[in-house]
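Journal club prep — side note

Before the paper discussion, L.F. wants everyone to see what a predicted structure for a comparable chain looks like in token form. Sequence:
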Amino acid sequence: MTRALRAVIAGVLIAAGIGFGAYSVWWIAMLLGIPLIIGGLAVLPRPGRAASLPTFAAGGPREGVPVLVTALNRSTFDVTDAQPTLVSARITPHDDTAYDARWITMMSRVGFQTTVHNPRIALAPDDLPPRTGTEPDLTAGPGWATFLPPAIAIVVGAVVLFGVGDSVWRIDTPNTFASSRSGSGSGSGPAAGEGMAQLGDRRDRLVQAIDDAGPDARANVLAMTFDASGSDRAEVYDPATGQSVSLTVREGGEVDQRRSPTTKRRGDTFATSVVASTDLSRMAATMTERTTAFAGAVVFDDMVVERPDTDEDVLITASYRNPEHITETHDIQATPAGEVAEFFDPGDFEASFGVLRAALVDAGVPLDRPALNRLEIRGLGSMTPTMYAGDIQSSGGVLAEFVSGRNSGEVSVVPGAFPTVDLRSWSPGDLFAFTDVTPAVFDKVRDQAMRRGDVEEIDRAAVDIQMTTTFQRDGNPVIQVAVGRSDGSEGTYSPSGVFLRDGVR
């Protein structure tokens, strides 16, 4: 009973630690969440063989059966825990034939010493070992009782974590950015909360801290971060030492400075003037509105200003998390000029084809003549399979590998991000045109794949589908598809949607 109670307490503590850490700001997770989890793990009974053994207890002299203990074997004298002990004894039942027996029991150090000094004891009739003479199995593993406390802790933790509303776990702070659906269900969220309205002031305060770090600091910024707790940070490159200078501005205005090695160089830096005139508050409101419309009620985590890669344009990325899905996060990009990226559902093929069409036009790739050797759409759900390793295998989105004039490479678009173009040196010979396939054909192929693989309708958007000439000996394009976790859905089809064969290889 004691072990079960400890397991219940451990489950509650661990669930509370996870809940506070997941739904509150980072410093709440550090100060409250982590200690609760550690405390829960400390309280949880340790699994061991002793947990599944009967406890050694001598019965009273009147009702007990006389027993003469002839030998005891115990592996340790640890006073804190009961330990498995091999007992050899002569048992003399009342009105019955005496017999010798050996059995394994759980015995404390005090019980061990007491029995050594007084080997003539009495056992309750129900605790007597059998007469079979079967030797105890010293190599046997622990019984199922060993795993009972962890199982109790897991069940209790799950009930507490998911049975309690997220509002219980969320500890709001004055500068916490949060958004929620409006009463009409439009999902617009607050246009300008207190923290968002202060983004301009926080940006100016951080720029001042960068100026104070040195005369060249404002021209060598690696990143600027504004997080939900109200703490603002900057990473500045020092060309004289090749180090990164980390600046953290607290709510009271104090600035912490720390140096560390970095592999970043001048091509990764930007000047503070790039975002000096950016209306960060209005941008944050637009980002929140679009993320909420796509993902439901979300909570702001941080906003980061940096170059995504060396010599690329500076982008502003805001990160949100969905309180209803502990591990689900959403990123949305914007430019310093105020342009905010759009979200789209890759499982909506009309929307995906529209996004990819615009990205190909911007990249100068023709739509009506052979220029592609792969066109892939991959859904966002956790059940989405991965047919092909590439830039969208983890994020989902749309991708096309192309050859246009002297350029070859790939265009990809991830929901919430701007299109990216990656130029490469390969030049595949077998190509098809963007207009050779339509959203209707992709829908037709998906429908067939779902019927063949008995995929539930709820997993319709968990699709990875592509038209490709890669690895096709005759050079003709085919459509390959997989939906959800059903291997039976995997198949290869013609560009018109006619089934050709099972599998995608």
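L.F.'s comment for the group: The two ends are 57 Å apart (CA to CA). Keep this in mind when we get to the figures.
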